[in-house]
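Q: What would this chain look like folded?
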Amino acid sequence: MVVAQDWVNWPPELAERYRGAGHWQGLTFGEQLARWAVSYAGRTALVDGGRRWTYAELDVAVQRLCTGLARLGIRRGDRVILQLPNRAEFVLSWFALVRLGAVPVHAMPAHRRSEITHLARLADVAGYLVADQYGHFDYRELAAQVQQDTGLRHVIVAGDPGEHTGFVALAELMAADPEPGPADPPAADDLALLLLSGGTTGMPKLVPRTHDDYSYNARRAAEVCELTEESVYLAVLPIAFNYTMSCPGMLGVLQVGGKVVLAPAPGPQTAFELIEREGVTIAAINPPLVPHWLAEAERGEADLSSLRVLQVGSARLADDLAAVVTKKLDCRLQQVFGMAEGLLCLTRLDDPDDLVHTTQGVPISPDDELRVVDPQDQEVPLGQTGELLTRGPYTLRGYYRAAEHNQRAFTADGFYRTGDLVRLTPTGHVIVVGRAKDQINRGGQKIDATEVEGHLLALPGVVSAALVAEPDPVLGERSVAFLTCTGDAPDAKALTVFFRDRGVAAYKVPDRLLVVDAMPLTAVGKVDKKTLKHQYLG
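A: My prediction, written as structure tokens:
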């Protein structure tokens, strides 16, 4: 069972206010799925290749798996790492865990031993749910390593468990005769899931979300996006992303009785085939995918007439590129600015083009509170740049098991320091300018400089290391590693092998290496990254 001090809930007076406003409806996701199964029984809920589930079928399948997990020994409050690609098994497992009252810890398919071991220890997980193989990688070997590192009790494999002793096939758990419900059901204000934060120091932090707040996040986003029973959502990016889950994502579409279509790969050809076949009405991608979508659309081989809204988010979309999207694709562009920690901003479907092309939208909730402040926490005049602080009915009040960090990440009155530098327009639209945090946003993948620098310093002969961002026309930003060495510096191939052997995700390998004789230092003896950028990157 998760104890209260592991995470910070909303103060009682604010919780009551959010309930009174109807934001929090007191329903767990398991209860909601049961209601959807009645309201939308015969409608298609989920599509994965040739496999389809109606809402009624989805509810039954989830209940079978929920029963199987309970018989395995998973209990309310247990944390379970969920690392699956865009397959129906992710959706079924997620709903089964939250219905049981267990807490899925979202991990990305690209994560490896370093990241997963960190998550397992931080969350004290009871289980780890993985695919057998995906993208030419064997996750069973990874699971065996993590189990050896941490002693986690259960490893569940979607597919063939192989020869690993004690690994359980997900299919076996899904074949259980369904029992009426969990013996110890969760409450709506319980911890429902743990999302990953990009973080600013060390390894990723965990973002606690409750059934109440996460449900509101998805439901309100669905309202802003004007979703209906006829909406068909294409999950292009990894479904474990907050963006793909609830902005409005999978959860928002299911709340209104629409259809979720899982794309097995993010490439535009795959996406366009699914748009045409399934009549997709809304899809969500990141900026690096935009040029590829535009190029594929120019070929004119797929019928995209069903697509009404294309969301672009997870990184800043260049204004010029936003204008091209509007011209080249016969659908509405919607810019998205959000974070796993909570706050979600969307441009509205009836916003004029100039706002859609140049801003990242307005908050979805009337109870979202925003402050834009200078380094002394004083609010700046409207239109000036400052750091964004926020609080609201779906924005966290503290990271999971991070009491010391929370002292710095939140104000005394509960505002979250996002680290994003923004400007506000007179209409309330947010313009993202940059970040105060030492973090690189490589095509939507958040790379913590401190973590990568730690790996670089483990290289033989490396004396000092600094990782900085460099603009990139496709990725938005790419990473540049500066090294001082006592001997020969590693080349790109050696660096890739080194990171792989350490179990680090491939996207964290620096895109460029530059060797310098000495690192410039600030007055207090820290590496001066501003000077590095000015001297070497222009």
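DSSP finds 18 helices and 27 strands in the chain.
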